[in-house]
Amino acid sequence: MEKLTHKTMEDFAKSCGVSRPTLSKYFDDPTSVKPATRALIEAALRSSDYQPNLYARNLNRKRTRNIGILVPALTDPFYAEMVNRLELRLRNEGYWPIVFSSHGLPELEAEAVNTMLSLKVAGALVAPLGQKSDPRTFEKLTQNLPIVYFDTYIEGNTPFIGNDNYQSVATIVEYLCRSGEAPAYLDIPHVNHNSPERLASYIATMEAAGCEPLVISTNASYTWEFERIGYEQMDGLLRAKSLPRKTILCANDRLAFGVMAGAFAHGLKIGRKKGDNLRIAAHDDHPLSRYTCPPLTTMAQDFAAMTASSVSTLLTLLGDTDVPTQPIARKVSLGGTLVMRQSA
């Protein structure tokens, strides 16, 4: 049966036999109208092609049900996984997520912030670029709406939920030292606070174990193309026959993907079995890490806890939670979990 056509809310309200304010109240919160009225409206919706313009309705409110999510790069598997989880969690809480990527560029990060403000989002979950961010951009954002940083942050009092890099890197360094040769550390450009924290933890843990830290500094300037610089770094080391150790701990999984490809191109066999040429480990447990060849040994960040804590903190700031109000932790550091696979 062909559905009825209604172009405006007034037309649809008349068809339902309810007033426009009642219909508007239903779209704000279906439980706010009488059960009989709700059943009447929902029956009419099933027989009609009418869709309310939620975007326009939100713009007319002082506070919308939209939540901004801003990340440095949606192509990064870590951020893609976090965005996926945050979107689903926010939808379950009755909010509409709007996702922005700064593509590694501070000017696009500032543009995204301005867009969120113009859309009058209720709040925002933000993973800023870090070193290249303009602090004034986020001062403007925090002055206008509640925000929570995840994964990385801008200095200040804004709540932050992220990985405990000191604990996680120490855990994997200790494992590598126990199970074989002590690792050299392949660094990346320090795009945010995670990079120097991981480097510092590597050095401190190696020294505590009585091992000499050996850092392979990156030869790349600021970039988010970690796979490329990993490949080029490994290729250069192998061509020059200057690879310092046969165990390499990479600053993150994306760097390790490039390192593994570079080693393969030179005919090296990666793994922890007798006869393998090289052990490679990393950090993050990106969704693709289990599918590398061989699967990558890494430290898993707690995606579930980071998602839950980020959303619950933002809902508390918005006053939209049934949980009794508790002091908001300004920094939540989540421990990582060692995932042992075949690469190290």
Structure description:
This protein has about 350 residues and is of the alpha/beta class. The protein folds into three domains: about 10-60, 434 Repressor (Amino-terminal Domain) (Orthogonal Bundle); about 65-160, Response regulator (Rossmann fold, 3-Layer(aba) Sandwich), CATH 3.40.50.2300; about 165-300, Response regulator (Rossmann fold, 3-Layer(aba) Sandwich), CATH 3.40.50. The chain has helices at about 10-15, 20-30, 35-45, 55-60, 75-90, 105-120, 135-145, 165-180, 195-210, 225-240, 255-265, 305-320, and strands at about 65-70, 95-100, 125, 145-150, 160-165, 185, 215, 245-250, 280-285, 295-300, 330-335, 335-340. The strands form two sheets. A six-stranded parallel beta sheet has the order 2-1-3-4-5-11, with helices on both faces. The protein has a six-stranded mixed beta sheet with strand order 7-6-8-9-10-12, sandwiched between helices. Helix 5 crosses helix 12 and helix 10 (about 225-240) packs parallel to helix 11 (about 255-265). The longest helix has 16 residues, at about 75-90. It is elongated.
